[in-house]
Fold:
Amino acid sequence: MDRDQCLTAGQNGMDKEHKIQIGLLVALEQALATGKSHPELLVILEQLVDYTNIHFMSEQMLMRLYAYPDIAAHEAAHDRLIDQARRVMEDFASGELTMVSAGLLTLKQWLIDHIRTDDHAFHRHLSSHAPAA
Ligand SMILES: [Fe+2]
Ligand SMILES: [Fe+2]
Structure:
């Protein structure tokens, strides 16, 4: 695989991960709306949080590899999203399902915004730079 193929594979991988991330969020919203049981909701919520953590870590590794200059701001955005996911977890643990729905809606809006702005900017950097030595 040459450099361009590697890059395309990396970017396609990121796009796929974003689809899975949003897909898990939507699945959780639907599960809440249709009154699924607490254990069923918890499984999806944990998958969403775990997947989001792994995705953010892999993006941050790529940013270091490509010496991305806006890494600090991007990592701060990830931290803010993780904090919001944590608040949703806490509301879920205390049985505040109305708060969980509201918190998820905020998380979804922030995540979609992040993908469209910060992640898109990182994609553009990847397309025009080689990995740092
Ligand atoms: Fe992302
Ligand atoms: Fe990101």
About this structure: Residues 3-129 form a domain with the Four Helix Bundle (Hemerythrin (Met), subunit A) fold (CATH 1.20.120.50).
